[in-house]
């Protein structure tokens, strides 16, 4: 599938190409005898239910969650984060977040500031992507209801110490929510290790599933106000959402076809192994940085060479507009990268790129050394 | 695809099988060069954007909407109804709904009763599915903010006079929201004709798209509070959702693959023609009712023979549990129908089937006369 294809380096937005078994699984459930899960007890409806359960179980295994029903499906990370944030915060609550949060965290928080008078502290992050832990410790108090943190910055690529942050949150009696948009599938995200109360994640990035999938892990004892109220196929006579997981948080018809594809994506990731994927992607980012840093006027954002980072490198080139660089990479070199603001204005403030944006190249498990070489060569030509 | 397949008569839950071009369109976008719409200006991202625009445009044509951006994508009807209802109602508002609303309308309303003190009147519907218009006229006053109405009852199959109801709503200064879950794709749902302010609809029922798709039409001047706050790829530096459609209501990554499939489904529907589909389905329901009514102790719910109805017939059989009937149809006859409460407890109150539930058979554009005959024969044998 890759021969003759463009060089795709925007895996942080969505992975591509998907493994072939992803589309196979989707076709099987779309064209095979499968109907609407939980909406009937006939076999076709149960086939749909079984597929959804398989993917839920695979996710539980990946996240080290004991009961798969503590993982609920959403249509993307944004929905998962909205469910988590709006579901747990009440009038006047205090929240601690970081400066590298994506708009999918920041905008729900700002909305609740406006409508429910919550208070939010955004903890500074250095240009290298390092969180100011002293400041965090100071800001998390017994008044804090929620600490929310990107596991890895989608602009800087740095990995945040969510385990340590979670301990600080829990010591203060606060909840810990991890936004695993940039880590699930390419870096260990593990409920046991992190002790997180909630983990929001996408299905279509490093888990290699199709767009339209994502989910939220919710600790068993934690009860959220559902984001969606509606039919569940269970306890239909009740006016309230049934207090049964996953139904309580999954009103309406699920994306059965997408969830089938996600299951196949997760199986691929688990066969490869997360550690191997991380190492592969890290090697590629190091190769890329080494090549790019030879270019005069080019600055790579985030962690320095040799430091841990997820599979993305954002950079600026003096005298060049980010959008122009991306445009030329696309048109002249068939290389797909993303340019612009990456939905994280405070992240750009941390990086010192406010008003300028950045070019971001991001790799996946299938990205090759040759593709990185092609990008380096192209950038050298553009910079001349 | 149908040879040797079970006889599928649960189209009101989800249509099956989907036209072959639906999976073809999905595969093309999944495996072809297409990335994340609106998250980059490179060609692969624009390919995804183009696909989404095509489906949005097809929907606009179907719904007679001038500007396709007034239609926003959701993951199902439930999300569309949650966006519509929670997005327009404020503290203390008055709402008029009907007794045949699905839980996807009733549960959001009951939630807002509890949290925002809204007041709701559910207008009675007769066992034949006829809404008490006199009562409706009385309840809709200048205090009413929203009138919400199922276009067709998912239990009774009756078609509600949404055009007339909309006029009453507008005369009182209220908004009109139509739940088109059971009509879009098999009965005319038209913004121009109905004058509705909002229309919520599924992609995976009579529009023949995959699960995980749906949408909401929102009248141009009407501004809702978004249900999801998050990244839009546009105006990333703003803390608020951009007031640009469709971005304002579409935070997060869309289900590009599903939306591609939905586009193919809509094209199939438009080629067949809505009126032809309605007539085909109506003929089949009449055939089914005629056959079923010969069975002693069997009662069909909703409109009488010869009256308009959408493609579903719910029924009870004296001395038989609905679930048992559905189970036997599935196991002994390979016929898939749904039994139970159909997510509409007040609908069952209208039908007089509270505590008993009902068996529901529902047809699609591809259902055949032979399949209906098979169900009638099976029911005659079961009843003996």
What labels would you give this structure?
Aspartate Aminotransferase, domain 1; 2 domains; 39% helix; 384 residues; pyridoxal phosphate (chains A, B); transferase (chains A, B); four-stranded antiparallel sheet; alpha/beta; homodimer; Cys_dSase-rel_unknwn_funct (chains A, B); 12 helices; seven-stranded mixed sheet; aminotransferase (chains A, B); 13 strands; Aspartate Aminotransferase, domain 2; globular
Could you please describe the fold and organization of this structure?
The structure is a homodimer of 384-residue chains. Chain A is of the alpha/beta class and 384 residues long. Chain A folds into 2 domains: 7-18 and 273-383, Aspartate Aminotransferase, domain 1; 20-271, Aspartate Aminotransferase, domain 2 (3-Layer(aba) Sandwich), CATH 3.40.640. The first copy, chain A, is 39% helix and 15% strand. Chain A is built from 12 helices and 13 strands. A 7-stranded mixed sheet of chain A has the order 2-8-7-6-5-3-4, with helices on both faces. The first copy, chain A, has a 4-stranded antiparallel sheet with strand order 9-10-13-12, covered by helices on one side. A two-stranded parallel ribbon of chain A has the order 1-11. In chain A, helix 4 (103-116) links the parallel strand 3 and strand 4. In chain A, helix 2 (43-63) packs parallel to helix 8. The longest helix of chain A is centred in the first third of the chain and has 21 residues, at 43-63. The radius of gyration of chain A is 21 Å and the shape is globular. Chain A starts with 6 loop residues before the first strand and ends with a helix. The relative contact order of chain A is 0.17. The model of chain A has no long low-confidence stretch (mean pLDDT 95). Chains A and B meet through helix 1, helix 2, helix 3, helix 4 and helix 8 of A and helix 1, helix 2, helix 3, helix 4 and helix 8 of B. Chains A, B: Its cofactor is pyridoxal 5'-phosphate. Chains A, B: Belongs to the class-V pyridoxal-phosphate-dependent aminotransferase family. Csd subfamily.
């Amino acid at each position: 599938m890759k021969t003759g294809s463009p060089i795709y380096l925007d895996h942080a937005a969505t992975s591509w190409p998907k493994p072939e078994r992803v589309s196979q699984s989707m076709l099987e459930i779309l064209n095979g005898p499968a109907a609407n899960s939980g909406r009937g007890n006939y076999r076709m409806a149960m086939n749909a239910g079984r597929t959804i359960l398989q993917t839920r179980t695979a996710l539980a295994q990946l996240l080290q969650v004991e009961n798969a029903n503590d993982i609920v499906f959403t249509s993307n990370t944004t929905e998962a984060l909205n469910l988590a944030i709006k579901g747990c915060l009440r009038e006047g609550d205090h929240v601690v977040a970081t400066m590298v949060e994506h708009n999918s965290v920041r905008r729900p928080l700002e909305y609740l500031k406006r409508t429910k008078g919550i208070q939010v502290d955004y903890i500074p992050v250095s240009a290298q992507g390092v969180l100011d832990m002293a400041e965090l410790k100071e800001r998390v108090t017994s008044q804090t209801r929620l600490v929310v943190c990107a596991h890895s910055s989608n602009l800087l690529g740095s990995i945040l110490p969510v385990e340590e942050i979670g301990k600080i949150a829990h010591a203060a009696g606060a909840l810990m929510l991890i936004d695993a948009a940039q880590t699930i599938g390419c870096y260990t995200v593990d409920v046991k290790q992190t002790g997180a109360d909630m983990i929001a994640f996408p299905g279509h990035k490093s888990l290699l599933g199709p767009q339209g999938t994502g989910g939220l892990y919710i600790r068993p004892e934690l009860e959220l106000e559902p984001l969606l109220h509606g039919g569940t196929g269970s306890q239909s006579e009740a006016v309230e959402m049934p207090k049964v997981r996953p139904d309580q948080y999954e009103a309406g018809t699920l994306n059965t076809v997408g969830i089938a594809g996600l299951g196949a994506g997760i199986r691929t990731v688990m066969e490869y192994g997360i550690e191997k994927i991380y190492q592969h992607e890290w090697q590629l980012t190091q190769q890329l940085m080494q090549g790019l840093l030879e270019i005069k006027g080019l600055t790579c954002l985030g962690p320095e060479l040799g430091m841990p980072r997820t599979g993305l490198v954002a950079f600026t080139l003096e005298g060049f507009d980010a959008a122009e660089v991306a445009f030329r990479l696309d048109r002249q070199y068939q290389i797909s990268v993303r340019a612009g603001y990456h939905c994280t204005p405070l992240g750009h403030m941390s990086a010192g790129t406010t008003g300028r944006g950045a070019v971001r190249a991001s790799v996946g498990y299938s990205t090759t050394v040759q593709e990185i070489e092609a990008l380096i060569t192209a950038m050298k030509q553009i910079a001349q």
